Amino acid sequence: MNSRELLVETMSELMWERGYADTSPRDVRERSGVGQGSMYHHFPTKRDLALAALERNVADLLPAASELDGAGDPMARIEAYLARPRDALKGCKVGRMTQDPQVREDPVLLAPVARAFAQVHGSWARVLREAVAAGELRDDLDPERLAHTLMAVLQGGYVLAIAQQDPGPFDDARAGALDLLRAAAPSTPIDKLDKLDKRK
User: Fold this and answer.
1) Element at 111 (helix H, strand E)
2) Where does the record place the HTH tetR-type domain (predicted)?
3) Which of 22, 80, 116, 175 could pair with 18 in a Cys bridge, judged by C-beta atoms 3.0 to 4.6 Å apart?
4) 100 near 23, Cβ under 8 Å?
């Protein structure tokens, strides 16, 4: 790994751990072992380095979300994505940046974050439309709105886990999301008959 890549990877990790505001160029140099001259040769400012690190974090996030766009049964892909192992106490590499005021207030730094969430939302909406078309979810559901809901559940789960320093709330949030999706499956004729029988 060359010095530029090492700097980007180190900044990426530090921003994930501490945020942009609480990460200094000195922190990056000390952890990476890259000298000041080399650092400023590649990245004249902290902001330049942060932008490269954000792009790295986005690149790490999107391949996981692309699992939603794969082949096969839509609900199986959704279940696999929700069950994928995650470090809940570290939070989402991209989502945590929205909590950093210096990132939120800088349109250049915020752009990759917004772009990443737009792409993930697109993946969610597509797989949910497929699930509706396959009869796995009711056709009165709005895939666009449901995509936002599921993304909010995951991001909120991270926040709760970090606040309590316990991955349990995150695991419960994604299990609850799956419960709600299963409850949104259309009723089959047999289900309807069962309900009628119970009313008698």
Assistant:
1) helix 107-133
2) 1-61
3) 22
4) no
Q: Rounded to 5, what percent of the chain is helix, strand, coil?
A: 75, 0, 25
Could you give the C-alpha distances from 15 to 7, 19, 158, 159, 162, in angstroms and in order?
12, 4, 16, 16, 16
pLDDT of amino acid 156: 96
Structure tokens at 16: 């994930």
All domains in the chain, ordered by first residue:
3-186 (1.10.357.10)
Which two tokens mark 43? 């990245």
DSSP string, 27-87: HHHHHH---HHHHHHH-SSHHHHHHHHHHHHHHHHHHHHGGGGSSS-HHHHHHHHHHS---
**Which token pair is 118?**
């737009």
Q: Which residue in this structure is represented by tokens 């080399």?
A: 38
Place of tokens 């942060």: 50
Q: Quick one: pLDDT at residue 197?
A: 52
Separation of alpha carbons 114 and 54, rounded Å: 11
Ranges of the chain whose pLDDT falls below 50: 189-193, 195-196, 200
How much is the pTM? 0.84
